[in-house]
Amino acid sequence: MKGRLYGVGVGPGDPELISIKACRILQMADVLAAPSSSVEGTDIALDIASYYIKPSTEILHLPFPMTSDRTVLEQQWDKNARSLQERLDLGQNVAFVTIGDPMIYSTYIYMLQRLAQLGYDIETIPGIPSFCASAAAAQMPLGKGGDAITIIPGDPQKVLDAQSGISSTLVFMKPSGHGRKIARMLAQAGYRNVTLISHAGQRGQKIWRDISAADWEDIDYMSIIIARKDE
Amino acid sequence: MKGRLYGVGVGPGDPELISIKACRILQMADVLAAPSSSVEGTDIALDIASYYIKPSTEILHLPFPMTSDRTVLEQQWDKNARSLQERLDLGQNVAFVTIGDPMIYSTYIYMLQRLAQLGYDIETIPGIPSFCASAAAAQMPLGKGGDAITIIPGDPQKVLDAQSGISSTLVFMKPSGHGRKIARMLAQAGYRNVTLISHAGQRGQKIWRDISAADWEDIDYMSIIIARKDE
C-alpha cells in the first residue's frame, strides 16, 4: 500500500502556534520532508517540526532554489516530486512541512499539484498564517464587519493590480445569502474555478466544484467560496 | 493585580485544529467568555473550548445580537466589555473564544478595542482561519508566487469595492526589499495606519507603528506590513 503525503502547516514561527493535528501527523510520519533554500524561513519550518517528530523519523531535505528562472524551478519541482514519490511508493507516510499555512505562498503547492495529478493520497493540514500572527501581535484587526481584506506578497505593483481587479483569489466568507448573485458576478468577471466549501474540516464537510449545482437553501452560515481565475 | 484578557482563536471547527498555545491558555483561564447569538458558529467556539478547559472554569455567555442597528450593537458591546472588565478587576484571567482567527471578522475585536483603550492587559492568540481550512480541504491554493489574495465577507458588492481599490486592509508579505516604495504608495493611496511587524510571535519580534522610522537594511524576510485606511 502506498503512503500518504501530508502538507503540514507549522504556523507562523512560535512552536506553540502549531495545531494539535499537525503535531499528531508529525509524530506518526515516517519521513519529514523539509524545503531548504538560502532564504530564512524555510529552516524555521524544520526547526519547529523537530520538536514534535519521533527520533526515528528520517529527514528529507528538498532544495527549492531562489530563482525566477521558470525552467530551473520546474525541473527542481519535478525532481523533488519524484523524491517524495519514491517514499510514498515504499508505503512511507511523508509530512512535508511549511511555515504558516500550506495553501498560502508555499513550495508545498507545487508538490501537491504534481502528486495529486498522479493519483497519490494527499491530506493538507492548515496552519496559522503569518499575517494572523502579525495582526494578533499588533492588536490590529484584519477585517471587521463587511471589510474586504487583500493579501499582497512582495512586489508593491500588486497594489495596483488588486485595485484594478486582478486579484487572482477571492475569498467570500458566509456567502449563503448571496450564493446565486456571487456565482453570476464571478462568471462575468472571468473566474473559472469557483469552489464552495461548507463545514471545512468538520463532520459534514461538503465541497462543490460546480456551484451551479449547490442548493443554496440548504447551505448555512459555515460556508466559504474560493474563486480563482486560473486552473 | 488585575487579570489578563486573552482573545483565543480556536480555529475553523475541528477541535484538533486549535493551537497548543490556545489549549494552554484555555486550561489556565479562570473565566471562559463565549459570544452567543442566534447564529450558528458562535456555539462552535464554546464547544471546541469546552474540550480543553478545567472543570472549575466559569463560563460567561456574552450576547452579541444579530442586528445592523449600530446603536443597539454599540450598547451591547459596551455592556459586554463591562462584564469582562468586572472579571479582570477581580484579578481573573479571561479567555474570550472566537472561531477561526480573532482578528478576522470576530466579535472579539470590539471587546479588544474597548478594553485596550482602558489600559487592560490583553493578549491575542491567533487561530487558523476558515478560508485556510477550506483551501486545505479543497486542495486549492490560496496564493502562489506573486498572487494577490482578497478576502471578502458576505456582501458581493465588496467584489466591486475591492476592484476599485476600497479594500480596507492590505497585507504585504515579505515587504523588506520594497519597504520605502510601499510606504510611499500607501501614503498616496490614503492608508493612514501602516504597521510593520517582524518575527511575529517569535523571539525578536518588533513592531513599527511609524514605518518611516524603520531601518529597511536591517529588516529581513520574516516581516509583514498591515495597512488600513481607518483607525
From TrEMBL, chains A, B:
The keyword Transferase applies. GO terms for biological process: cobalamin biosynthetic process; methylation. One of its GO terms (molecular function) is precorrin-2 C20-methyltransferase activity. Pfam families: TP_methylase (PF00590). Pathway: Cofactor biosynthesis; adenosylcobalamin biosynthesis. Residues 4-209 form the Tetrapyrrole methylase domain. It comes from the Bacteria. Keywords: Cobalamin biosynthesis, Methyltransferase, S-adenosyl-L-methionine, Transferase. Belongs to the precorrin methyltransferase family. This is Precorrin-2 C20-methyltransferase. It comes from Mahella australiensis (strain DSM 15567 / CIP 107919 / 50-1 BON). The lineage of its organism: Bacteria, Bacillati, Bacillota, Clostridia, Thermoanaerobacterales.
